[in-house]
Specification:
Strand content: 25-35%
Largest sheet: 6 strands, mixed
CATH topology: Rossmann fold
Bound molecules: adenosine-5'-triphosphate, magnesium ion
Distance between the termini: 33 Å
Radius of gyration: 18 Å
CATH class: Alpha Beta
Shape: globular
Number of helices: 9
Helix content: 25-40%
Number of strands: 10
CATH architecture: 3-Layer(aba) Sandwich
Mean pLDDT: 95
Length: 240
């Protein structure tokens, strides 16, 4: 279980997150939605300490990150992350992108890493792209390599930050299909997305953010049927 308690984040004195209290239960899927600049990415990045909160507690099970920064590596290993712009290693083929952390972090042999990487790339429909460099792949393929790379590490938690916002509609569907396949496989999935229909379909709970704060954490059906805050109502009216 992941728990954020009174998390606050400032950048150079400007508060971009405040009063953040939320719990992510194991195996559930959460969608974080809200307007641009609301603090969604910052919240996501506080979960694996890519951003260090200015105040507050970030718990991964019974470990509190602020007081256990020596455990950062273990926590990062447990949390796979997928970014909007893929963040692949440009000079490595797809297979090597996936093998890299398996060898470097998990210390697997070349053969072991290759076996796992090949399998994960096949899982996302890229068995025919193992030897391609990122510049030879479409955006949707690049993002699927990034997902395969994260999954190869067998994370307990997957963090997605707008994984489809750089993609055209067709590629978006390819990637969303892969993500749907991860739903309720036992992993905790936290997705920042502007794909409202996708959030509606896959999330157990919606976290609605506005102006640095969480305004609602609500079971998905209830959120879409009866959003509580005026801001959420307006937001949904603008999206649909
Ligand atoms: N490293 C940084 N330094 C300074 N300000 C930052 C930094 N990262 C984010 N911010 C600011 O924090 C606020 C929240 O940013 P964040 O990226 O979390 O928003 P977001 O909800 O993810 O928006 P979007 O939907 O556009 O991605 C914004 O005003 C942004 O400019
Ligand atoms: Mg963002």
């Amino acid at each position: 279980m992941i728990k954020l308690v009174n998390v606050k984040k400032e950048f150079k004195g400007v508060t971009v997150l405040q009063n953040v209290n939320c719990t992510f239960e194991n195996g559930k899927t959460y969608a974080i939605i809200g307007s641009s600049g609301a603090g969604k990415s910052t919240l996501l990045r506080c979960i694996n300490y890519l951003e260090k909160p200015t105040e507050g507690e970030v718990w991964h099970d019974d470990i509190e990150m602020m007081t256990h920064q020596n455990q950062l590596h273990e926590i990062r290993e447990k949390c796979g992350m997928v970014f909007q712009n893929f963040n692949l290693f440009a000079h490595m083929r797809a297979l090597d992108n996936v093998m890299f952390a398996l060898k470097k972090v998990k210390k697997l042999s070349d053969d072991e890493a290759k076996k796992i990487a090949t399998q994960r790339l096949s899982d996302v429909g890229l068995a025919h792209r193992l030897q391609n460099y990122p510049h030879q792949l479409s955006g949707g393929e690049k993002q699927r390599v990034a997902i395969a790379r994260a999954l190869a590490m067998e994370p307990k938690v997957m963090l997605f930050d707008e994984p489809t916002s750089a993609l055209d509609p067709e590629m978006t569907q390819e990637v969303l299909k892969v993500m749907k396949g991860l739903n309720h496989t036992g992993m905790t999935i936290i997705i920042v997305t502007h794909e409202i229909n996708f959030a509606k379909e896959v999330a157990d709970e919606i976290i609605y953010m506005d102006k640095s704060e969480i305004l609602e954490i609500t079971e998905t059906k209830t959120f879409f049927a009866t959003p509580k805050s005026t801001r959420a109502k307006e937001f949904l009216a603008n999206m649909i």
